[in-house]
Each structure stands twice: as structure tokens, then as C-alpha cells.
From TrEMBL:
InterPro entries: Amidohydro-rel, Hydantoinase/dihydroPyrase, Metal-dep_hydrolase_composite, Metal_Hydrolase, Metallo-dep_Hydrolases_sf. This is Dihydropyrimidinase. Its EC number is 3.5.2.2. Its cofactor is Zn(2+). Keywords: Hydrolase, Metal-binding. It holds the Pfam family Amidohydro_1. The lineage of its organism: Bacteria, Pseudomonadati, Pseudomonadota, Betaproteobacteria, Burkholderiales. It comes from Massilia phyllostachyos. SUPFAM superfamilies: Composite domain of metallo-dependent hydrolases (SSF51338), Metallo-dependent hydrolases (SSF51556). The gene is hydA. Belongs to the metallo-dependent hydrolases superfamily. Hydantoinase/dihydropyrimidinase family. GO terms for molecular function: dihydropyrimidinase activity.
């Protein structure tokens, strides 16, 4: 299988240049001007367009059992939707129940993910602690290509990691050459604020952001960063949503601490007025944690991305339909938390970031693909258009536009937080592992074509 992408401008994180790109089987095999196309090659005309490394969404939840239900998108529909948006790799989460074996959960998720249409890899959550967890973290790193562990500082009485778990797990991750990641929200504060709001009779989705103010996120971000500092581990903070958390990251980085931050496409462009919308179903559709924030936080997140204190962009793709969300119609704490976005992330960030001059095209590639590949140690297999890299490519038309709607999306759930937004800058072609899987609106995703991507441990520092 040979594919030639002709006449485009290759955009990598470090530079952009005119070149043809030749793919053979699943790899890029040649890059240069006026390459000869072998007989039988599929030719993609990229004239006037950019050719970029396929997106890496560092944070998705496909087929996740959560809050008494299971997300609408499974690993096939979710990864297929990603391909339609130019995302060729997802990083999903294995979330063991407290007291469940990490390895058992890992194998369960691996089974669910077999039908993926795009490449995938897993962060594994540490939701409890005992010597068997210590042992199994080692097995996951050494034998299964896992190099990142996730910690939920929220969701008390469910999957919340207490300080004992955080400290033990961060320490073990360091020993193994893996990176700890955290969902930073103080679960005790969230729990108590929720109870207070319910007692006052504030039971709708408008209570959701009130129960999770920025300070609650900042406390946890600061605590995780402090623990990482004491132990000497790097730390990656998922879905940074507010200026206060970003400040914590910026302060730590300025002191030389290795702290990374992830921003979600939704948090970059949607504000908290959605929770006060007169239609309760619309408001519930936006319930996710951390919640959407007031405007000034969005400006801060863009500055963080441009200034280098936030590194990756993701979606926390976790779709529930209106009936599932209605489980919380009389009690906001029972609304399944989650929104979509895997299909829209690249276009939303291009439109709001590159078209406005906040990001250059190379900076766009850096925050949608390259940094993720480097931080999670799959670079240069992923995250760059280069000879020898995986042939995961997106051909991007900076002048093409479309209006996002749940009625035309590939993703399941029947709801879209970007509904009605017209974006300029869209993928025309997506190539995944050398195959043309999306062409001008037509999706040819194939269940099972995605591969599990192993991520080796980091080389220990000698310090
Ligand atoms: Zn998540």
C-alpha cells in the first residue's frame, strides 16, 4: 500500500516547508520536492493545503463505565470520529475499581479497545494502594508499555486517590521511569459543597460549577505539584481549566520543576453561561469536571499554551446521551460527567487559535500532537512528519469551513458542546497507519485497524 501526498506544505513543530510525502505501508518513507510516485500509488492532491502529523488526543474515555452507565462512544465509534477530525491516536484511561487488580482492569480495557479504528494507548489509573498495586505498576511498565499513571483527586467515595495513594504511587512511578498524571480537584471540598447546595434546594446543572470553583482545582494542583516536588517526580496535570491552576504550574516551572499541563478544546472556547441556559437538558449536556469557566480563564489558558506552561490539548471525550444525563435531573450530583470533542478538537483549536493569530501553524502542531508524543515517549514514531515515522497524517485546508452540529457528527450521543460554531480550517484527508481513512467528509474507518501503542519507560536521570 503506497500513498503519495503531493504539493502541500509540511508543518512540523520546528518548521514548515514545501514537500511531497510518500508513505509505504504504515510508515513515511520519503519527503522531498517532486518525488516520483510509484505505480499504483494513491495520490492525494494537497495543493494549497498543510500536511501535518495526525493529532494525538491525550485524554479520552471510550466505552467507559461511569456513574452507573456507559459512555455512548465505544472504541470503534470514538476513534472513527477522531479520524474524521484529523486525530489519529487517542490516549485513553484504564480505571480499575478500588481494590481491583490493575492488570485485570488493563486486560479488560485492552479487550474493549480491539475494535478501535485508530491507534490507541492507555494511561492506567491508580485508585487505591497496597503492595499488589506497587507490584502491578511494575508489570505494566516493564511488560505492557505503560509509562503514565493517572490519579483522580476528585470523586470521593468512588475512585478518589488520597494522599497516601498519591505519595506511594508517585514514588513508584519515579522508580519505574513513568510519569504520574492527576485530575486536580479537591474531592472532599467538592463533596461538601455539593451537599450544601442540595440542602439549599439548588439541584439543577447551575449548581455544578458552584460545587467546583477554581479554588478547588487550584488546591489540588498545588498539592500534586508539591508532592511531586518533594519526591522529585515530574507531574502532568490533565484538563487545566482555570487561571489559578495555571499559575501553580507556571510558578513551579519557573523554579525548575518538571510540570506539564493539558488544556481541553472545550475549556478554551466555552464559558460557564451554558449552566444557566433555560433548557435544563442543554445545561446538563455541558456537565463535566472541571466545569466550563468564566471568560478570563479562557484567555489565561490560551496564554498558557502560547507561553509554554500548557503543553498538550485534549478533549476528555466522554459522551452521554440526553436520557443518560437525565439521571441527574433532580440532583445535579447524579448527572453523568462528560462531553464530547474528539472529532472537533483540531478544527476548534485551529479556528480559535491560528485564525486569531494566537498560535502559529507550527505551534498548533506542537500543542495538538508533538508535545504529547514527546511527553509520553512515542516521539518520533508519532508527532512529526519525518521519514521513519508512522504514516499518521492530516491534510488541512486552512480555507475550508464547516458548521459543527450534532446532526452531522460521527460521534454518538446526539449532543455537541460546539453546536453551531462555524470553523475555518478543516481536515480534507486523514491518513492513519498509511491508509486513507477520511476523504472530504467521507469516513472509511475500519473496526480493528487501530493498534495498541506501547510507550517505553523514560530513561532514568543520573541526578
Ligand atoms: Zn477524563
Amino acid at each position: 500500500m503506497t500513498t503519495m501526498i503531493r504539493g502541500g506544505t509540511v508543518v512540523n513543530a520546528d518548521r514548515a516547508f514545501r514537500a511531497d510525502v510518500l508513505c509505504s505501508n504504515d510508515k513515511v518513507v520519503a519527503i522531498g520536492e517532486n518525488l516520483d510516485a510509484p505505480a499504483g500509488a494513491t495520490i492525494i492532491d494537497a495543493g494549497g493545503q498543510y500536511v501535518m502529523p495526525g493529532g494525538i488526543d491525550t485524554h479520552t474515555h471510550m466505552q467507559l463505565p461511569f456513574m452507573g452507565t456507559v459512555t455512548m462512544d465505544d472504541f470503534y465509534t470514538g476513534t472513527a470520529a477522531g479520524l474524521a477530525g484529523g486525530t489519529t491516536t487517542i490516549m485513553d484511561f484504564v480505571i480499575p475499581d478500588p481494590k481491583q487488580s490493575l492488570l485485570e482492569a488493563f486486560h479488560t480495557w485492552r479487550g474493549w479497545a480491539k475494535k478501535s479504528a485508530a491507534d490507541y494507548t492507555f494511561h492506567v489509573a491508580v485508585t487505591w494502594w497496597d503492595p499488589s498495586v506497587h507490584e502491578e505498576m511494575g508489570v505494566l511498565v516493564r511488560e505492557h508499555g505503560v509509562n503514565s499513571f493517572k490519579h483522580f483527586m476528585a470523586y470521593k467515595n468512588a475512585i478518589m486517590a488520597d494522599d497516601e495513594t498519591l505519595v506511594n504511587s508517585f514514588r513508584r512511578a519515579l522508580e519505574l521511569g513513568a510519569i504520574p498524571t492527576v485530575h486536580a480537584e479537591n474531592g472532599e471540598l467538592v463533596y461538601q459543597l455539593q451537599q450544601e447546595l442540595l440542602k439549599k434546594g439548588i439541584t439543577g446543572a447551575e449548581a455544578h460549577p458552584l460545587s467546583r470553583p477554581p479554588e478547588v482545582e487550584a488546591e489540588a494542583a498545588n498539592r500534586a505539584i508539591a508532592i511531586a516536588n518533594v519526591l522529585g517526580t515530574p507531574v502532568y496535570i490533565v484538563h487545566v481549566s482555570c487561571a489559578e491552576s495555571l499559575d501553580a504550574i507556571a510558578r513551579a516551572r519557573a523554579k525548575g520543576q518538571r510540570v506539564y499541563g493539558e488544556a481541553l478544546a472545550g475549556h478554551l472556547v466555552i464559558d460557564d453561561s451554558v449552566y444557566r441556559h433555560p433548557d435544563p437538558e442543554f445545561a446538563r449536556g455541558h456537565v463535566m469536571s472541571p466545569p466550563f469557566r468564566s471568560r478570563h480563564h479562557q484567555d489565561a489558558l490560551w496564554q498558557g499554551l502560547r507561553g509554554g506552561n500548557l503543553h498538550t490539548t485534549a478533549t476528555d471525550h466522554c459522551t452521554f446521551c440526553a436520557e443518560q444525563k437525565a439521571a441527574g435531573k433532580d440532583d445535579f450530583t447524579r448527572i453523568p460527567n462528560g462531553c464530547g470533542g474528539v472529532e472537533e478538537r483540531m478544527a476548534v483549536i485551529w479556528d480559535a487559535g491560528v485564525n486569531t493569530g494566537l498560535l502559529t501553524p507550527s505551534e498548533f502542531v506542537r500543542v495538538t500532537s508533538t508535545n504529547a508524543a514527546q511527553i509520553f515517549n512515542v516521539y518520533p514514531r508519532k508527532g512529526v512528519v519525518a521519514v521513519g515515522a508512522d504514516a499518521d497524517l492530516v491534510v488541512w485546508d486552512p480555507n475550508g469551513s464547516r458548521t459543527i452540529s450534532a446532526s452531522t457528527q460521527f460521534s454518538k450521543g446526539g449532543f455537541n458542546v460546539f453546536e453551531g460554531r462555524t470553523v475555518r480550517g478543516i481536515p480534507t484527508h486523514t491518513v492513519a497507519a498509511g491508509k486513507l481513512v477520511f476523504e472530504r467528509g467521507e469516513l472509511r474507518a475500519e473496526a480493528g485497524a487501530g493498534r495498541y501503542i506501547e510507550r517505553p519507560a523514560f530513561t532514568p536521570t543520573t541526578a
